[in-house]
Design goal:
single chain; Alpha-D-Glucose-1,6-Bisphosphate, Chain A, domain 3; 4 domains; six-stranded mixed sheet; 22% strand
Length: 458
């Protein structure tokens, strides 16, 4: 199979099984990754996998490639991505990788890769893997192999950092992803009463895709929480590096508002601290960080971008609308949906009232979810670049990642290219739905001149 260059994306390698990736491709990617690690002096990396049907075969091929580059492997077995990050940093390994399709449809799979300390690869470094493969510029050797699950070490680390003040009843929806193998047990060890929903491991995802950013996937959890009288509900994506939260009334809360609560908690211990978030985040988050004495830092969407920013500027907390939450206070500066859920539970247990009361203290503006306008991978960045220049002639625009257009009279609209899929990401926020409709007409009107862009249905 010829290498499809589009599988080498901004912060991972990902594509359709059979059409873009297969074991032979992953053996080559593994060898290139092993070469990268070896050339910076590394000798041992961790490799795990999610529970997708193709992941076991892809992991075996990837591990084979890493070892052919002369790098040894610690096989983590079936493991959420945050536990791969943890194992890499906690065990002081030279890198780590997790075979996972994350929240994508079942026909997709991929691999997320890091350096020592769970530091993310840059976009250029991921592209360098492709160049190594195409040029045959690869190391040779015979790396070793051992199996070592990180479960108990991870549990001990979280239990040493999170201590809920009272027992809560929590519904956990793992969407049949790998979080179901780990999170319910950890929450029980925290003292929670846990009601499991779709926690059986099944890589076919028969109930819904594990993707808490998509409101459609949260309906069962929203119904279950009030049905069983739970204090809150937690949802995870397929590899558990993202989290979703439902309060006791069954209301789903966007991840940037979850970050509001986490930021207030951090700022109580670190006055004046910076909090980083992605360009899709609510103005309410920005205002609340300032109101509590913090410094808001808007940055590019993408977990690797935010982690690099945190490391460069020594930022202790970050998050993005997709549900990634990043922790560097007494932790490793990585995104961890399971740790995030434990911290939300700790906040809820500390409060005398219900979780809904905490969220009610956050101003809720009218906002759309993330809207997707289909656009070919080969065209999407050109479209956004042209559109950004056009919009800057008419409006104030924040252009650190696409165009966040600040409309006169309040409200903003965003258009950016997805780093992982063939579409443009759109989001709008304002005081009223009517104002959002006005802003949509402007952005949609500009996009309409590109016949290959399919505008969202709503």
């Amino acid at each position: 199979m010829p290498l499809n260059p589009h599988i080498f994306r901004a912060y991972d390698v990902r594509g359709r099984i059979g059409a873009d990736i297969n074991p032979d491709v992953f053996r080559q990617v593994g060898r290139a990754y092993g070469t990268l690690i070896r050339r910076v002096g590394g000798r041992t990396v961790a490799v795990g996998q999610d529970n997708r049907l193709a992941s076991t075969e892809l992991k075996a091929a990837f591990i084979g490639g890493v070892r052919e580059a002369g790098v040894s492997v610690v096989d983590l077995t079936i493991t959420p991505t945050p536990l791969m990050y943890f194992a890499t940093a906690h065990w002081k390994l030279d890198g780590g990788a997790n075979i996972t399709g994350s929240h994508n449809p079942i026909e997709y799979n991929g691999v997320k890769m890091v350096y020592a300390g769970a530091a993310p690869l840059s976009e250029d470094e991921i592209q360098s893997l492709r160049r190594m493969i195409e040029g045959g510029n690869l190391e040779s050797g015979a790396g070793g192999l051992e199996t070592r699950p990180p479960r108990e070490d991870y549990y001990a680390a979280v239990l040493g950092r999170v201590r809920p003040a009272r027992r809560l009843k929590v519904v956990v929806d793992a969407g049949n992803g790998v979080a179901g193998i780990y999170a319910p047990e950890l929450l029980r060890r925290l003292g929670c009463e846990v009601v499991e929903l779709f926690c059986e491991s099944d890589g076919r995802f028969p109930n819904h895709l594990p993707d808490p950013e998509d409101p459609e996937t949260m309906h069962a959890l929203q119904a279950k929480v009030p049905e069983v009288g739970a204090d809150l509900g937690i949802a995870y994506d397929g590899d558990a590096d993202r989290v979703g939260v439902v309060d006791e009334r069954g209301r789903r809360h966007e991840a940037d508002l979850i970050l509001v609560l986490l930021a207030r908690d951090l700022l109580s211990r670190h006055p004046g601290a910076q909090i980083v978030f992605d360009v899709k985040s609510s103005q309410s988050l920005i205002d609340d960080i300032r109101a509590h004495g913090g410094v808001p830092v808007m940055w590019k969407t993408g977990h690797s971008h935010l982690k690099r920013k945190m490391r460069e500027d020594r930022i202790l907390l970050g998050g993005e609308v997709s549900g990634h939450m990043f922790f560097a206070e007494n932790y490793y500066g990585v995104d961890d949906g399971i740790l995030a859920s434990c911290k939300v539970i700790e906040l809820a247990a500390r409060s005398r009232g219900p979780l809904s009361g905490l969220f009610d203290t956050v101003p809720h503006l009218a906002a759309t979810p993330e809207l997707k306008a289909m656009c070919p991978d080969a065209e999407k960045f050109r479209v956004v670049a042209e559109l950004t220049q056009e919009l800057k002639r008419r409006y104030d625009v924040i252009d650190i990642d696409g165009a966040r257009v600040l409309f006169p009279g309040g409200g903003w609209g965003l258009v950016r290219a997805s780093n992982t899929n063939p579409y443009l990401t759109l989001r709008f926020e304002a005081a009223t739905p009517a104002r959002i409709a006005e802003m949509k007409r402007v952005i949609y009107g500009d996009l309409a001149r590109y016949p290959f862009v399919t505008l969202p249905a709503e």
